[in-house]
TrEMBL record:
Residues 87-156, 231-297 form the Cupin type-2 domain. Pfam families: Cupin_2. It comes from Aureococcus anophagefferens. InterPro entries: Cupin_2 (IPR013096), RmlC-like_jellyroll (IPR014710), RmlC_Cupin_sf (IPR011051), UGHY (IPR017627), UGlyAH_cupin_C (IPR044697), UGlyAH_cupin_N (IPR044704). It comes from the Eukaryota. This is Ureidoglycine aminohydrolase. CDD domains: cupin_UGlyAH_C, cupin_UGlyAH_N. The gene is UGLYAH.
Length: 310
């Protein structure tokens, strides 16, 4: 069976235009370019601007064909230790029948451009830009470039941490366009979060009780999930009005727009295609300067006890 990861939009369902998402430029800069860069690695965060994501820093991956990856984050002792994050580029006809080498790993995929065919459980899901998939630990899946152009996607990998009396979360495919944004309290929609989740079992379930229901979202207290991968959206002029300082690690990939981000006391400019890698307890806030929306895909580890050195 062949399924699409994005419903055809209706005026009543989706008033916002379809988004475009940044991906690495690749290539190789000329000898005439200046060495000045926003790239920075500190004890609390790393800033990887899109301009350094060139051909020379890509890696091929085992069991993948016609594919290369930019590895943006990996578990690093004394820094961020829970996850890895890639941007993967797949040429037409490329992909893998055995993408994940570790049965204990869960994954989140977000398509930046192109078309991908994700197969799981005997069904193939067509994923276009904005498509999102959650792959639970131990899943058997395949991913192929089904189009005529290169495709690129963000891949977050984490060793799943089971919880007592709690089942592992299920596989699902959805998309940015199909998932409603949830405004943060007292922001009048200036700051909102897109929380991806498994769709309703059927379209009929959207209309139970005579009222239309939006697609469900992963609740922050759904203890099956030990990580969240959400899209955070700021309207021009919106802010995080305090320095968030918390136990969660972050991988922050900027999808659209630009802003200034305060990371561990440093104000840095960020734009679409940049990546910020943050360790636990790194103070952080942002101001979205416009002129358009500022949006990023955000990883964080959640819903588990802190590990103790037993």
């Amino acid at each position: 069976m062949f399924r699409f990861a994005r419903l055809a939009p209706r005026a009543s369902r989706c008033a916002r235009p379809l988004a475009t998402y940044a991906s690495p430029p690749g290539g190789h800069p000329p000898q005439s370019d200046l060495l000045t860069s926003r790239a920075k690695f500190t004890e609390a965060y790393a800033m990887i601007p899109r301009g350094v994501l060139r051909d020379i820093v890509t890696s091929p991956l085992p069991n993948w064909e016609r594919t290369r990856s930019w590895i943006l984050a990996r578990p690093l002792s004394g820094f961020a230790e829970t996850f890895s994050q890639y941007v993967v580029e797949v040429a037409p006809g490329g992909g893998s029948d055995a993408p994940e080498p570790n049965d204990a790993a869960e994954g989140a995929l977000f398509v930046l451009r192109g078309s991908l065919a994700l197969t799981h459980g005997g069904e193939t899901h067509a994923m276009e830009a904005g498509g999102f998939a959650f792959v639970p630990p131990g899943a058997r899946w395949a991913l192929k470039n089904a189009g005529d152009d290169d495709a690129a996607f963000v891949w977050v990998r984490k060793r799943y941490e089971p919880a007592p009396n709690t089942p592992a979360p299920e596989f699902f495919v959805t998309s940015d366009a199909a998932t409603p944004r949830t405004p943060m309290p007292d922001t009048n929609g200036a700051w909102a979060t897109t929380r991806f989740a498994r769709r309703a079992a059927s379209l009929a379930s959207l209309f139970r009780g005579g009222r239309r229901r939006l697609f469900p979202q992963v609740a922050s207290d759904d203890l099956r999930h030990d990580m969240h991968c959400n899209i955070v959206t700021f309207q021009p002029g919106a802010v995080i009005p305090f320095l968030e300082t918390h136990v969660m690690e972050h991988g922050l990939y900027v999808l659209e727009g630009k802003a200034v981000y305060n990371v561990n006391g440093d104000w840095i400019e960020v734009e679409a295609g940049d990546f910020i890698w943050m360790r636990a307890f790194c103070p952080q806030a942002c101001y979205a300067g416009g002129p358009g929306e500022f949006r990023y895909l955000l990883y964080k580890d959640v819903n588990r006890h802190a590990k103790l050195p037993f």
